[in-house]
Design brief:
It is a single chain. The chain is of the alpha/beta class. The protein folds into two domains: about 200 residues, UDP-n-acetylglucosamine1-carboxyvinyl-transferase, Chain; about 220 residues, Enolpyruvate transferase domain (UDP-n-acetylglucosamine1-carboxyvinyl-transferase, Chain, Alpha-beta prism). The strands form five sheets. A four-stranded mixed sheet has the order 3-4-2-12, covered by helices on one side. It has a four-stranded mixed sheet with strand order 5-6-8-7. The two termini are about 25 Å apart.
């Protein structure tokens, strides 16, 4: 059912209960789609995410000549006919990435590593503001012909593919770890070894995910944790035949937070605990435990540098917590789907909270919540879902909606059925 432009959130009047089947991880699904395309045999992804971001990735792979068969009810994606890819004519292939950062970075690397063809990549206006320079410059150092047809270092791009020659490369992935992940996944396709030198800091959590996924597809990287230099040898990816995608740990944070807003308890079957799976965002459950265990009016201070996609969940929940919340390590999120730091500060101020915004941090002191607030989502799915959870709190103690979400359909980026699932949990809580 289509969502309205403005969605009032119906609070829970009874504690939440039951269990939630989480969607597959977006980060893993799009990485696995790329790695499957680089194999020489079919790969079936099970438990895959079906959302706007993954559909954009799958559609682009089809345009490049791969077969991608989707079974949404069965949550499977089959990638096949890798040998038929890039067998294209002289006409450029137009690839649309919307606002999908993973698709934008991974497809740029894939097209740069292709043996032939001309590829034009573009997205929505906000995508043209997202960092690409580090990846573009690194691929050019490996011999790629990448032309910025707008502002230098950003989308839109035109790539005249001729493969990658290998050699030394510097990369600054401080603005997005996806820049480094994209480079790593295509580096084994180069004609000669690739020697990588990191010139800026990088969030290792998602890069470690990429490394471990590559290993599960047959290519290992020797990269000691204490060095910024390492090499990748030419190698071939090996199909695992079937690859299971983990449930999304970032999506899980909303349902881990829901009992704080509504009371009760939820089970999240299949979700791996911190350290047991590929996703660093699983560590959010420990952050939430510390927030709930805090006594008195003591300030909670948490560094979200490595799990920054989850900071909005805690920030939106902060009006309900006992004492001030300080969130650091989030400067890079100003260049994601929107300026997440400024946007979060703006929406919390509308709700009556005391907020101190810094370049790399937010400090939020709880104050009485204002009613009748319409939350601007900035086209960013994580604003919609985070504040959707806050709206489940029964502020007036009579079930009246007090908070509404603008453009709730933006959740289609990673979790199309989020609000439908939230409402089903609310209705289930009312049953005897």
């Amino acid at each position: 059912m289509p969502l309205p432009a403005l969605l009032p959130i119906q609070p829970f009047t009874r504690p939440v209960r039951g269990e939630v089947t989480l969607p597959g991880s977006k980060s893993i699904t799009n990485r696995a789609l790329l790695l499957a395309a680089l194999c020489d045999q079919p790969v079936t992804l099970t438990g895959a995410l079906f959302s706007e971001d993954t559909q954009l990735m799958a559609r682009a792979l089809r345009q490049l000549g791969f077969t991608v068969k989707a079974d949404e009810p069965g949550q499977t994606l089959l990638v096949a006919d890798q040998a038929k890819a890039f067998q294209i004519g002289a006409a450029p292939i137009d690839l649309w990435v919307g606002l999908a950062g993973t698709a934008a970075r991974f497809l740029t690397a894939l097209c740069a590593a292709a043996p032939r063809g001309i590829y034009q990549l573009d997205g929505v206006p906000q995508m043209r503001l997202r960092p690409m320079r580090g990846l573009i410059e690194a691929l050019r150092a490996l011999g790629a012909d990448i032309r910025c047809t707008g502002e230098a270092g950003f989308f839109p791009l035109e790539i005249h593919a001729q493969g990658l020659r290998g050699g030394p490369v510097n990369i600054d992935a401080s603005e997005s770890s996806q820049l480094l992940s994209a480079l790593l996944m295509v580096a084994p396709l180069a004609a000669a070894p690739v020697s990588v030198a990191l010139t800026g800091g990088v969030r290792r959590t998602f890069v470690e995910m990429t490394k471990r996924l590559m290993a599960e597809f047959g290519v290992r990287i020797a990269w000691p944790a204490d060095t910024t230099r390492f090499s990748l040898l030419p190698a071939r990816y090996v199909s695992p035949r079937v690859y299971p995608v983990e449930p999304d740990a970032t999506a899980a944070t909303y349902f881990q937070a829901l009992p704080v807003a509504a009371g009760g308890d939820l089970k999240l079957p299949g979700l791996r605990p911190p350290g047991a799976g590929l996703q660093g965002d699983a560590a959010f459950v420990d952050v939430l435990a510390r927030a709930r265990a805090r006594s008195g009016n003591k300030q909670l201070s948490e560094d979200f540098h490595e799990i920054s996609d989850t900071f909005l969940t805690l920030a939106a929940l902060s009006p309900l917590l006992n004492g001030p919340t300080r969130i650091t390590g989030i400067a890079h999120t100003r260049k994601q789907e929107t300026d997440r730091v400024a946007g979060m500060a703006r929406e919390l101020l509308k709700l009556g909270q005391e907020v101190v915004e810094e370049p790399d941090a937010l400090t939020i002191t709880p104050r009485p919540l204002k009613s009748g607030v319409e939350i601007e989502t900035y086209g960013d799915h994580r604003f919609a879902m985070s504040f959707g959870i806050l709206g489940c709190h029964d502020l007036h103690r009579d079930g009246r909606a007090w908070l509404a979400i603008k453009d709730p359909a933006c959740c289609a980026k990673t979790f199309p059925h989020f609000f439908e699932l939230l409402e089903s949990l609310r209705k289930s809580s009312l049953k005897p």
